[in-house]
Amino acid sequence: MNKPENLRAHLLATVAELKHNPDRLLIFIDNGKIRCTAAQTLSFEYSFDLQVILTDFAGHPDSVMLPLLGWLSVHQSELLENVSKTEDGIQFEADILDNSKVDMSLRLPLTERVVIGRDDQGNTTIRHPGEPQRAADLLDSNWIPGAQATASEWVLPK
Known about the structure:
- This protein has six helices and five strands.
- It has about 160 residues and is an alpha+beta fold.
- The chain has one domain (about 5-130).
- Strands 1, 2, 3, 4 and 5 form a five-stranded antiparallel sheet that branches.
- Helix 1 runs antiparallel to helix 3.
- InterPro entries: Phage_tail_completion_R.
């Protein structure tokens, strides 16, 4: 699984308080499952709850939430876009230790695909492909309708 370490690296790089105290960031995997359909290959999907714990955290919660949401927008975007998943998707708890510090726990339901294949020599290959990105991100920036435009008024690149 690559997402837990990827998120750890992202939070350590973007949350100022964690840069100076990386040992205050703990990550655990709970409720892990593997889904495999046994189709032509043994490709499968990890499904798990990622628990992120920040101990003795003195920063503002926003300083964690914004980088977390940015990471999720790339690595698990359905937690932000799918109404049925946004309702219970990102959960948190905080124990207020004093006026300046909290222990904060975040729970994220994540998935990670693993694609099994064969190379030209017949050796088994294992890939962890990135998440599908929103179609809008793939559109040419010139494909922007006017304020009152209809579909027939879209500007297409030459």
